[in-house]
Amino acid sequence: MKLQLAFLLFSLALVSAKFEIRDRADALRAHEECREDNNVPDDAYDKFLNYDFVDHKRTKCYVKCWVEKMGIFRKKGFNEADIVYQFTHNHPYYLQPVRHGLEKCIDHNESESDVCTFAHRVFSCWLKNISKLYVKFLVNKLCKI
Fold this sequence. Notes:
The protein is mainly α and about 140 residues long. It is built from 8 helices and 2 strands.
């Protein structure tokens, strides 16, 4: 187990050479930019800041915008290693819930959904499958004002 953790942390260090960690300021800037880009109303936006992606006509493209600006989603889809590194680099004890959620949710858009639906489906699934404790940590770490 320790060997696996050491290998994973080494792998994550290699990813860090390419991937730039985003912090709270980056996340808030991404939220603001995506709000403007998608004309999100105040009531929905307040929920989005807490990772409560309510059913709204602008939700899916807002999520796609945010995950792109956070660097975890690209044209080919989600980069699992970048997601793990972004959300566990300083908190390796959250590695298991992050990886577990990804295993349940990552797909390669086999259903050929539009890009907004694809990004929203995977990210929302991941949020639902990680522990409630981690979601609370995530909200406080990245986006709580």
